[in-house]
UniProtKB/TrEMBL annotation:
GO molecular function, one term: potassium ion transmembrane transporter activity
Designated name of the protein: K+ potassium transporter integral membrane domain-containing protein
Keywords: Membrane, Transmembrane, Transmembrane helix
Name of one Pfam family that matches: K_trans
Domain of life (superkingdom): Eukaryota
Length: 303
């Protein structure tokens, strides 16, 4: 149980420690008015409340069932974007037929981008920067511009401007990424069924409209629906990956970070330009922080 400390109001005409009203506003919110004599020190009043656990404090040890539930939902909502990146990353990186060394170097860049940016930067450090359990650009802006911040008024104005710019970029990403992801998926189907080439764009539009229509059902229902789908998707990627590794085990060299660095050194200018394509592998990672208030730190990390 937590406690609330309420300061008392003073009144010359009322006896000390006289509680004049006690009103319950909400399940865990109370208002208490107390009048005391002007020459008496205010007496703190402790009120016990039942505090519901916020998602940022949910751990597999404290709330195992809720933790598993949120982990599954975070797979459907957060990793629906990052998990579809393999559909178009390599085709974006290479606009020519690469040799084996180039494939290993590019895959190494992708692997270490995911490890460093997603797993380490966001998974460990960024998720620790919550604002009362909430994440995202404007939650962080609210924290840095609050009374608790050590920034000067000028610095707070700069933070607000930068946050507005970041929000604009997020809107652009939200408009671009779904279209690219769905279009790439449908193009993959057309490879096996060339007769669908003329239907790629109409099918993509129909799917996007359907996806945006179901957004009104909320994060919980969408996560519950797409969580198992993403589990099946990642399991499929894992099985296909194992199968392809048995055919070409040399691709495991990509886990060596030197291969990524060596690729950039050898390719020089072309390798530098290809970093833009490699960075597409981490598109959607901002959802890890933006949805912190929905799912919590540990469910996101474990998913």
């Amino acid at each position: 149980d937590d406690s609330i400390t309420i300061e008392n109001k003073t009144d010359d005409n009322v006896a000390p420690n006289n509680i004049t009203s006690f009103e319950q506003i909400d399940e865990n919110v109370f208002t208490i008015e107390q009048t005391i004599h002007h020459d008496q020190q205010p007496t703190p009043i402790e009120v016990s409340i039942d505090e519901h656990p916020i998602t940022v404090d949910i751990t597999p040890l404290k709330n195992p069932s809720l933790f598993f539930n949120l982990t599954l939902r975070s797979l459907g909502v957060i990793f629906g974007d990052i998990g579809t990146s393999p559909l178009y990353v390599l085709s974006t990186v290479f606009d020519f037929q690469p040799n084996e060394a180039q494939c290993i170097g590019a895959v190494s860049l992708i692997i270490w981008s995911l490890i460093v940016v997603v797993s380490i930067k966001y998974g460990i450090f960024i998720l620790m920067s919550d604002n009362l359990g909430e994440g995202g650009t404007f939650a962080l802006c609210g924290f840095l511009t609050s009374d608790r911040s050590f920034l000067s008024p000028t610095g707070k104005k700069v933070i607000i401007i930068v946050s507005l710019m970041a929000g604009s970029l997020l809107l652009g990403d939200g408009a671009l990424t779904p279209a690219v992801s769905v279009l790439s998926a449908i193009e993959g189907i057309a490879v096996e069924a060339p007769t669908l080439n003329n239907w790629i764009v109409p099918i993509t539009i129909i799917i996007l409209i359907a996806l945006f229509l179901v957004q009104r059902w909320g994060t919980s229902k969408i996560g519950a629906a797409f969580g198992p789908v993403m589990c099946l998707w990642f399991a499929s990627l894992f099985m296909i990956g194992i199968w392809r590794v048995t055919i070409k085990p040399s691709i495991l060299k990509a886990f060596n970070p030197w291969e990524a660095l060596h690729y950039l050194i050898i390719e020089k200018k072309q390798g530098f330009y290809q970093i833009g394509g490699v960075f597409l592998s981490v598109t959607g990672l901002e959802a890890l922080y933006a949805d912190l208030g929905h799912f919590g730190r540990w469910p996101i990390r474990c998913s």
